Amino acid sequence: MVTKRIIPCLDVFQGKTVKGINFINLKEIGNPVEMGQYYSNEGADELVYLDISATQEGRKTFVSLVKQVADKLKIPFTVGGGISTLQDAAILLDSGADKVSINSSALSNPSIIEKIASLYGSQFVVVAIDAKLEDGIWRVKSRGGTKESGYELFEWASQAQERGAGEILFTSINHDGTKKGFALDALAKLNSILSIPVIASGGAGTMEHFKEVFENGHVSAALAASVFHNKEILIRDLKNYLISNKIEVRI
After folding, report:
1. Pairing of strands 5-13, 16-21
2. All structural domains of the chain with their residue ranges
3. Catalytic residue list contains 130
4. N or C: at which end does the chain have fewer Cβ atoms within 10 angstroms?
């Protein structure tokens, strides 16, 4: 049995880990490298760093950070945010990131998936999908959930896989921030139609939610941010809980 993965997500703005609402009222919560080391020591399987600095200067700072993280961390990490060209991805991967996560740029230019996969391999490409359930249809959104893409979730996920994505990171906009659990039905369907791993995001609030998403959503990994940053859930405690419920995780 393949072990399930627990993945903390860190938002980075101008070299600092921050938290906020829709990138507004950002508050610094720690040093990204030190927080990465903490999560690594706590038993996280991977990390995701999202660059939310919009300027070119912010990107330079982020590249410098990626190099530091690669030098200090012994667990894999994915980087995302504002990657719109093959060159953007190449700079980050060549700086030491294990994977890149692309979202809006893949929707506007799907061939970028193929370009990165062709140069580095599918295992380096995570396609992140933000979708909202509206009138019974999971509609894919871009630009942080603010813009209609014209795609339906399962259609787009299938196309992303065909184009070379190695993983799908699905965030339910309906569930995100609610701490009421993941979008289990949508995740289970994604898993049933895809052959690549699915990462669940949006809705984590309790350890039971992680148990449910692995048992009923059948995902390969679960991602969360605030419950880990606020120490509402400690990763070591979470993994012990999952093991006690016969879910395979790495200790």
Report:
1. antiparallel
2. 5-244
3. yes
4. N
Residue tagged active-site, from 45, 51, 88, 130:
130
51 is catalytic: no
Residue ranges for the chain with pLDDT beneath 70: 1, 21-24, 54-57
pLDDT in tens, 149-207: 999 999 999 999 999 999 999 999 999 989 999 999 999 999 999 999 999 999 999 99
CATH of 5-244, one of 3.65.10.10, 1.10.287.3510, 3.20.20.70, 3.40.50.1170: 3.20.20.70
**Which candidate in 11, 45, 51, 176 is catalytic?**
11
Secondary structure element (H or E) that encloses residue 2, with its range: none
Helix axes 56-72, 86-94, angle to 10 degrees: 30
